Amino acid sequence: MLNKFLKGLSLLLLLNLLVKPFWVLFIDRLVQEQVGNVAFGMYQTFASFTLILGIILDPGLKNRYNTQVAKDNSSFSALSGDYLILKLGLGFVFFLAIGAVAFGFEQYQAHWRLFLLLAFNQFLLSVLLFMRAALTGLGHYSRDSMMSVVDRLAMIALSLPLFFGPHFKHLRTVETFALVHTAGYVIGIVVCVAMIGKPLFAIKLRFRPFHLKDILRRSFPFALFTGLMALYIYVDFIMIERLMPNGFEHAGRYRKAYRFLEAASMYGLLFGNLLLPVFSALLANKVMFNRLVIMVFKIFVLPAFMVAVVCVLYRNELMDLAYPGEVAVVANTFGVLMVDFVSICLFYLFGTALTALHHMAWLNRLAAAGVVINLVVNMILIPRMGILGAAVATLCTHGAVGLGQAYITLVSCGIKPKWHQALRILGFIGGSVAACIALTYTPIHWSAQLVAGLTLSFTFALFFKVFSLREIALILNKSPNE
Fold this sequence. Notes:
Elements: H1 2-35, H2 37-53, H3 61-71, H4 76-104, H5 106-109, H6 112-137, H7 141-164, H8 174-196, H9 209-243, H10 247-281, H11 286-313, H12 315-322, H13 327-356, H14 360-385, H15 387-413, H16 419-439, H17 446-463, H18 469-477
């Protein structure tokens, strides 16, 4: 199982290293430059509403479904029929809620078509993620790795002629950008259907009200956690728009910094999607479960720390590449948000472990605390510090939740880090930070400093034996059942 996970992970990372940075650093960024901060800020604010209300579409169903299928593949056809019927009903409720928001605020009414189109995209994305949950639940990790980029590849193929060719200048609007997403999700769903294949023909849609009610009741702990999490992750744009004059413009500027954290967080989400069924399958094997937690921490969380360090040190240079002329507005916000990347990684690792362990009560308590922290800090800092205050609120929220989840996981699993392991990690962190800072005082170009800093960090990781290439190679060479 561990072998299979790692091989699926390597394919997944390779595909996403090729596709996701191109989308974020080229397509998404340049579309915003073409349509302007105000239009893109409006687009992002409306999208945030659909993401928060998306809890109606998936009140914990995807995770519960994925866990159940992973435990017993023979239940796929029966479970899938019930869950799909339920999702259709929840979709109707979702659109009612979106309509209430779109027509409930006077400044949103003029753009209700864009609002509803983004809501439809959220519904399509929910369907696509549900079908990908079926793939991983059935153990098709490599196929899910392919699916992680299919929709984005389709969007890139459509965006290039529409936004960067010579013939469609009149179509370069946020509405067109939303339609590109629509097409990408539809293509993704079609491809996912083909990848699941024959098992889909065994699905029977049955409307059984009492059974569906029981699914919702059992999914409620997942729903509460997912809803609270969505609230404190996506509410920033809404609060910026509500609390600041010319809110859409400031939301657009915040998006310029935030998109890099979002791109980095995609790797965390991909890890989480792969880890959940693996953790669920390893529940009976405590040794392997704990081993996987420790190994993923080494190869996932610690590298994120170094990414955060170089992003802070070279925040002005990086933002000057991305947004010439707006460095002073977004650079510091970008630096704070990339420190938050470490917290995001903690969240996806330990939050996924707690989900597999069914410690939903603790997850919900921490998520509720995160909502309170986020709302309070945002309300205090946004009027005083603008978008930088929203970034600080995000870091405080994710940091508190991620560390809380890490502590509870370690206690629940009986994982007790040894003092020599802690010293090695501290040596790696201290040496890496010192080397990166020292490089900033050298006369070489900042890009060469950045590459050298990451290279030295990897060298320190090997020197302090934070992880070893031999350990990973041995695991990859073991049989899948080991």
